[in-house]
Design goal:
Layout: H1 3-20, E1 29-36, E2 42-49, H2 57-64, H3 72-82, E3 101-103, H4 106-110, H5 114-126, H6 139-193
Antiparallel strand pairs: 1-2, 2-3
Helix pairs in contact: 1-6, 2-3, 3-5
């Protein structure tokens, strides 16, 4: 068993554990998660988050865009279509705070026509007319809205924690299996190289 592989898996498990206890005000990050595909192979799915209050889709696209052959608009549109529930009322400029976004692969973003992406973003941004000043809400209404938003954020954080705990358990199980296989292999090698064999 390659000791470097064991060290790498330990590092991944430690990172997952650290993310569970990370400060919620910390900078969003990109997290790689292995998910089984329909063919049984594993695909690396990237997650970005949690999104911060006031963070825009354009800012997220800039953070996750690593391929210079892909435009910011292509990545923005790919992010939007991959995460429709992350936007209030399906509006491009209403990214929810505290959510984890699925980051499309470079191939997925490149598959979107750059002109189409620009046109969609411009049309949806232009049609998102600013809301007229609302009538003054009652203090109770504001508190109710804040309570609902806090409940939603708590639920999202709980879902993400369950996901991370499952990933950590999976990584720990893999490490234990690798360590056990390594110990068995070492025992066989010792038995084979023992005198009198």
């Amino acid at each position: 068993m390659n000791p470097n592989l064991i060290a790498f898996l330990l590092l991944v498990a430690t990172s997952a554990s650290t993310m569970l206890h990370a400060n919620e005000n910390s900078k969003p990050s990109v997290i790689a998660a292995a998910e089984p595909s329909s063919a049984g192979a594993s695909l690396n799915t990237q997650k970005y988050g949690p999104t911060r209050k006031g963070e825009s889709l354009a800012q997220v696209a800039q953070q996750v865009l690593t391929d210079t052959t892909i435009s910011n608009e292509q990545m923005m549109w790919a992010l939007f279509t991959a995460n429709p529930k992350a936007f209030e009322n399906g509006k491009l400029n209403r990214l929810r705070a505290g959510v984890y976004l699925t980051v499309p692969t470079s191939e997925q973003a490149r598959g979107i026509d750059a002109k189409t992406a620009r046109r969609e973003i411009e049309s949806r941004t232009a049609s998102a007319a600013p809301k007229p000043p609302a009538a003054k809400k009652s203090r109770t209404g504001d508190l109710d809205a804040q309570i609902e938003e806090a409940k939603h954020e708590r639920d999202e954080a709980a879902k993400e924690q369950v996901f991370l705990k499952a990933r950590l358990k999976e990584m720990e199980d893999k490490i234990q299996t690798l360590l056990r296989e390594n110990a068995e292999r070492d025992a066989k090698l010792r038995a084979q190289s023992a005198p009198g064999k």
